[in-house]
Amino acid sequence: xxxxxxxxxxxxxxxxxxxxxxxxxxxxxxxxxxxxxxxxxxxxxxxxxxxxxxxxxxxxxxxxxxxxxxxxxxxxxxxxxxxxxxxxxxxxxxxxxxxxxxxxxxxxxxxxxxxxxxxxxxxxxxxxxxxxxxxxxxxxxxxxxxxxxxxxxxxxxxxxxxxxxxxxxxxxxxxxxxxxxxxxxxxxxxxxxxxxxxxxxxxxxxxxxxxxxxxxxxxxxxxxxxxxxxxxxxxxxxxxxxxxxxxxxxxxxxxxxxxxxxxxxxxxxxxxxxxxxxxxxxxxxxxxxxxxxxxxxxxxxxxxxxxxxxxxxxxxxxxxxxxxxxxxxxxxxxxxxxxxxxxxxxxxxxxxxxxxxxxxxxxxxxxxxxxxxxxxxxxxxxxxxxxxxxxxxxxxxxxxxxxxxxxxxxxxxxxxxxxxxxxxxxxxxxxxxxxxxxxxxxxxxxxxxxxxxxxxxxxxxxxxxxxxxxxxxxxxxxxxxxxxxxxxxxxxxxxxxxxxxxxxx
Length: 505
Ligand SMILES: NC(=O)C1=CN([C@@H]2O[C@H](COP(=O)(O)OP(=O)(O)OC[C@H]3O[C@@H](n4cnc5c(N)ncnc54)[C@H](O)[C@@H]3O)[C@@H](O)[C@H]2O)[C@@H](O)CC1
Ligand SMILES: Nc1ncnc2c1ncn2[C@@H]1O[C@H](COP(=O)(O)OP(=O)(O)O)[C@@H](O)[C@H]1O
Ligand SMILES: [K+]
Known about the structure:
- Helix 10 links the parallel strand 11 and strand 12.
- It contains 18 helices and 18 strands.
- The protein has 2 domains: about 220 residues, 3-Layer(aba) Sandwich (Rossmann fold); about 280 residues, UDP-N-acetylmuramoyl-L-alanine:D-glutamate ligase, CATH 3.40.1190.
- The protein has an 11-stranded mixed sheet. Strands 4-3-2-5-6-7-8 form a 7-stranded parallel sheet, sandwiched between helices.
- About 50% of the residues are buried.
- By secondary structure, it is α/β, with parallel strands linked by helices.
- The model has no long low-confidence stretch (mean pLDDT about 95).
- The chain is elongated, with a radius of gyration of 26 Å.
- The two termini are about 25 Å apart.
- Helices cover about 40% and strands about 15% of the residues.
- The longest helix has 23 residues.
- The structure holds ligand NAX, adenosine-5'-diphosphate (ADP) and potassium ion.
- Belongs to the NnrE/AIBP family. Belongs to the NnrD/CARKD family.
């Protein structure tokens, strides 16, 4: 799914009105009608509704919703905020309709003192501002936002299109924004919904299709995308019947150090479950028995050094389709030297995670030696160590995309919505996964999966998109069976099979 900017969403609306048999008032009726359907479905008539309307088209949506709920016999107060702006044409149209039929249900509010007393179990609908917000909310309107937010613990707050005060494409940190329990948004996700800084504002997001022009959607280029199941179906490659283990590549995993062999074992198991043909693990001498006993399907090569690996560059030859490096590796000087040598002799795309990323942040010039098309998998702290801090999440996304272009790498920034930046600057968000995966070892599993997919000849972009999707999907299956609390990283691995089956068989 494409993620459009606020300006593009306005363009999509205008294009739809110009090219499809629908007027702007009808499009508003359609959009707001979807919201009303959702509200009617979710809340019984015992809930009194307070619908706060601004004077633009978001407020127009609010008026349509108010009318529909009144028609259905709900108790509704339409709270119209009179802040002086000229009302939009569609707002005026639906205002007149409401005024004619339900004048008694309209309440005009011109300052904070006009904020209504809310009875128990009220539902607040926020239709104050949508994508048209062009500066932070100030003055008494800000006071209304605070008053609504004060109700967060007592009443349900449903935002229409966007929580008012939020901008689709810019940071609104420390400005007044509605804290919604639900956001009912039209047709597309907005970038703002996917960034951690807005997590407490958007609540649960529902995307309601309103029939915007497919022509516009298909032909308009965007930087940001949300990965979806259809995308995975175009990526996934079924295994040919006459395949043999050579078909699926030989991967080298460089991982583990004294006390951190678990990371290496988790990565190795995940790599095998992702379908690699052959796997060799380069591990420190102390990890030899551990790996051999934990995962009989993997071959092991022990380093000369006991507690960490320092000679893996000697291994890195053309036998290996790809290399996954980093989980539990440690950052000993000898390990860093071996990594530097490996980067001078191995030229295929590889997967670089954890301590291998930490080595790159200590020796940043090595970043230029990383083979083009490789996949870096930092969590936010590792990302900051590599590329520096950002003032807010929008700037971090800019930086992510810019660095992927500059270095010609795939950079996967982990999080609730993992963001995957490509060498052409495009960024794909992955929505699978859950907080049960916020536990040590989950990232090691991802490294194994990505390495396994690269070894099987998935192109790096295909591997990183499919790998992130499957990792989260398996995590969701594990959480459904075991709970988010009780699941461990190993459970992500043991549900990978079910994830493949559910997604592709
Ligand atoms: N035909 C369409 O264009 C459709 C639009 N829809 C709705 O329309 C919304 C966008 O409507 P608009 O473009 O009218 O924008 P909004 O309704 O978000 O508000 C824009 C109005 O608020 C004013 N404004 C902006 N920032 C302000 C601030 N900080 N303080 C005070 N006033 C401020 C603007 O000058 C303008 O008058 C969408 O979010 C969606 O809810 C939907 O009905 C779908 C169809
Ligand atoms: N709340 C969450 N929602 C979705 N995915 C999550 C969540 N928390 C963590 N994850 C995923 O779990 C993995 C954690 O990786 P990482 O922080 O590197 O863990 P570790 O280093 O302990 O292995 C990432 O892929 C991340 O996207
Ligand atoms: K809103």
